[in-house]
Write a structure and sequence with these properties.
Helix content: 25-40%
Radius of gyration: 20 Å
Order of helices and strands: HEEEHEHEEEHEHEHHEHEHHEH
Shape: globular
Oligomer: single chain
CATH superfamily: Aldolase class I
CATH architecture: Alpha-Beta Barrel
Structural class: alpha/beta
Mean pLDDT: 97
CATH class: Alpha Beta
Bound molecules: zinc ion
Number of strands: 12
Number of helices: 11
């Protein structure tokens, strides 16, 4: 009780505040998303996401070396293929955009960078949905086999981790079985276990050309009103063999619940909509301080890993401290 207890004693100086701090955001926590576009000849800024680019194959040296210099440990890759069809066959083609990109990055970075391949169909299908479609419905079980094929092709190309984002039931188990069957027992699965249906993905759809032609994603992505369901989703993915579970977008209450209730390696994705909100806020408050605070809050909530378009800025800011 006051006056014996004075909280301000431990706030007296920066040294003491750092000494007793409970959470820290570090460069080693960060993952940077990269878009690779098979149709491009040179890098192109994404108009909906200021300061973010799509890169052509064969020119990944610049972005990859930048990450290596900043000591960012991991990338997550999104491919934009030149060919799309109803089953997304470019997603598992041996010479597909993502397979080529993985090989190119391995050639540049060797083992110095963790290469995570996003695994979905929406960038590769002509209808833009994350699964196969029949009579206007997104099929679950029929899609799983294709996810398995994509996983194997990404592992063959050299991915350390595959990250299924399509929210099909049973996807983690199907991918684990497909990988193991081909001998890729050491390829990890970072599952988008808890992925909400939200407007916050809008800029990404332009960035990755994954907008859908009909309907929406509400029959497979989660309803934002639910939180117990997030625990059930994450638990199911752990049981199916996920190595890391992800919460997307980076909703703080969900990160907190998933981490405290399941005690499993937990990643979160600060999505394109969060990125543009933070960019817009920079018109009104200090961008660096706001963005640092925003990401520290995700760590405090329980995230071990943060995928963010701000990874490079954060790495610079953290290193200058
Ligand atoms: Zn998708």
């Amino acid at each position: 009780m006051y006056p014996r207890i004075r909280f301000r004693r431990l706030r007296k100086s920066q040294k003491i505040r750092d000494f007793v701090s409970e959470t820290s955001l570090e460069v080693k926590d960060l993952v940077y998303p990269i878009f690779i576009d098979e149709n491009l000849k040179k890098k192109k800024e994404i108009p909906e996401m200021p300061n973010q680019y799509r890169f052509p194959l064969g020119q990944l040296e610049e972005p990859i070396n930048e990450l290596l210099e900043l000591k960012i440990p991991a990338v997550i890759l999104f491919g934009i293929p030149s060919y799309k069809d109803s089953i997304g066959s470019s997603a598992y083609a041996k010479d597909g955009v993502i397979q080529k990109a993985i090989k190119e990055i391995r050639g540049i970075a060797g083992e110095d960078l963790i290469v995570i391949a996003d695994l979905c169909l929406c960038e590769y299908t002509d209808h833009g949905h994350c699964g196969l479609v029949k009579n206007g419905k997104i099929l679950n079980d029929e899609t799983l086999e294709i996810y398995g094929k994509i996983a194997v092709s990404q592992a063959e190309a050299g991915a350390d981790m595959v990250a299924p984002s399509g929210m099909m039931d049973g996807m983690v188990m199907a991918i684990r079985e497909a990988l193991d069957k081909e001998g890729f027992t050491d390829t990890s699965i970072l599952s988008y276990a808890v992925k909400y249906n939200t407007v916050l993905y809008t800029p990404f759809r332009y960035a990755a050309e994954s907008g859908y032609k009909f309907g929406d994603r509400s029959t497979y992505q989660m309803d934002i009103r639910n939180s117990d369901e997030a625990i059930r989703e994450a638990k199911a993915d752990i049981e199916e063999g996920a190595d890391i579970i992800m919460v997307k977008p980076s909703f703080l209450d969900i990160i907190y619940r998933v981490k405290t209730e399941l005690k499993y390696p937990t990643a979160t994705y600060c999505v394109s909509g969060e990125y543009v909100m933070l960019k817009a806020a920079a018109n009104y408050l200090n961008e660096k301080n706001n963005v640092l605070e925003y990401h520290i809050c995700r760590k405090r909530a329980g995230a071990d890993i943060i995928i963010t378009y701000y990874a490079k800025d954060l790495a610079r800011w953290l290193q200058e401290k």
